[in-house]
Design goal:
With 129 residues, the protein is mainly alpha-helical. Helix content is 50%, strand content 9%.
Length: 129
């Protein structure tokens, strides 16, 4: 979802309704989990264009995200990487997603041991930054 255009639309004539729609997907732990909520809702509503319109979502961006996911799954399959997923309804779902995100962030961090402690820096090309 990070490699596609913004999934949220905010038309001038309906800014309040668009903000309310976005709030229904918002997750307290950040944008990545908010976008994941949007993706799950999109898939659970059968990738319906009318549902996207009613919820102020960019269907092209969601289709693109779905295509990227399919491509990544194909690459993992070709490399014999086992895909493991916690069901969305599981109470540990968000905990496991946060753990996976932090594991991925590891490669974007540089640490230096200083006399007063440890200094952490984000990689200059990181989207975290």
């Amino acid at each position: 979802m990070l490699s596609v255009p913004n999934v949220f639309t905010r038309p001038r004539e309906a800014t309040k309704a668009a903000d309310e729609a976005k709030a229904r997907f918002t997750h307290i732990d950040g944008d990545q989990l908010t976008m994941l909520n949007v993706y799950h809702a999109y898939k659970s509503h059968g990738e319906d264009s009318q549902w996207c319109y009613e919820n102020f979502l960019n269907m092209r961006a969601l289709k693109s995200a779905d295509s990227v996911r399919t491509q990544l799954a194909r690459v993992c399959h070709r490399l014999n990487v086992r895909l493991v997923s916690t069901p969305f309804e599981d109470r540990n779902y968000y905990t496991n997603i946060r753990k996976a995100l932090v594991a991925g962030f590891f490669m974007q961090v540089r640490a230096r041991l200083l006399p007063k402690g440890v200094e952490f820096m984000w990689h200059c090309t990181s989207w975290l930054g």
